[in-house]
């Protein structure tokens, strides 16, 4: 169960868009439409932001969107706001009743 | 609203055991698969274990297989994690989380901290 690969950091100015990548393999990200994304503020629990690659739970702003191409998934945050500054984690089903997370990306709003 | 409250964490010596609990409320617990996910200090998230809604199936990460046991009591809306033969790299904040078909973790508790140290 190798962790999915995310960039350690990403940044953007208020109002801009930023994309965070999540790279896996054909055995996880590429093999299932089961990528999810979680937002985590320091000292807080993770919060589901995107599930099944591109679906948003109720209450999540439509500024957050997800996509996937091959073995790489992406979370895009449009119209960046100060409150979007947090850590973001991707996750994927990896088959054989195993789940894997990415190492996390710290998003900074400049 | 959905509430998950973990408890049972603490400081424990290597090789010893600890049992974590997760009290669920605000939803029909017996309808949902449940997970434990952990986060070492300053590190990322790691899936630990899952149990089916009825307890019929349980699966573990390789890192804890044979040492940890997940269980549940649907009559009490409680989830458990029995951790044996604890090691230093088990030190982490342990979260319980609901599981949805579609392979994602919908609701999370606030976590309980386990520190394995002599």
List the helices and strands and how they pair.
The complex is a heterodimer of chains A (110) and B (118).
Chain A lengths: L8 E4 L5 E6 L11 E6 L6 E4 L13 E6 L2 E6 L8 E8 L5 E3 L3 E5 L1
Parallel strand pairs in A: 1-9
Antiparallel strand pairs in A: 2-6, 3-4, 3-7, 5-6, 7-8, 7-9
Chain B lengths: L2 E5 L2 E3 L5 E8 L7 E7 L5 E7 L6 E3 L7 E6 L4 E6 L8 E9 L3 E5 L3 E5 L2
How is this structure best described in words?
The complex is a heterodimer of chains A (110) and B (118). Chain A has strands spanning 9-12, 18-23, 35-40, 47-50, 64-69, 72-77, 86-93, 99-101, 105-109. With 110 residues, chain A is an all-beta fold. Chain A is globular. The model of chain A has no long low-confidence stretch (mean pLDDT 96). Chain B has strands spanning 3-7, 10-12, 18-25, 33-39, 45-51, 58-60, 68-73, 78-83, 92-100, 104-108, 112-116. In chain B, a hairpin with a 3-residue loop joins strand 9 and strand 10 (104-108). The chains are: A mainly beta (110), B mainly beta (118). At the A-B interface, strand 7 and strand 8 of A face strand 5 and strand 10 of B.
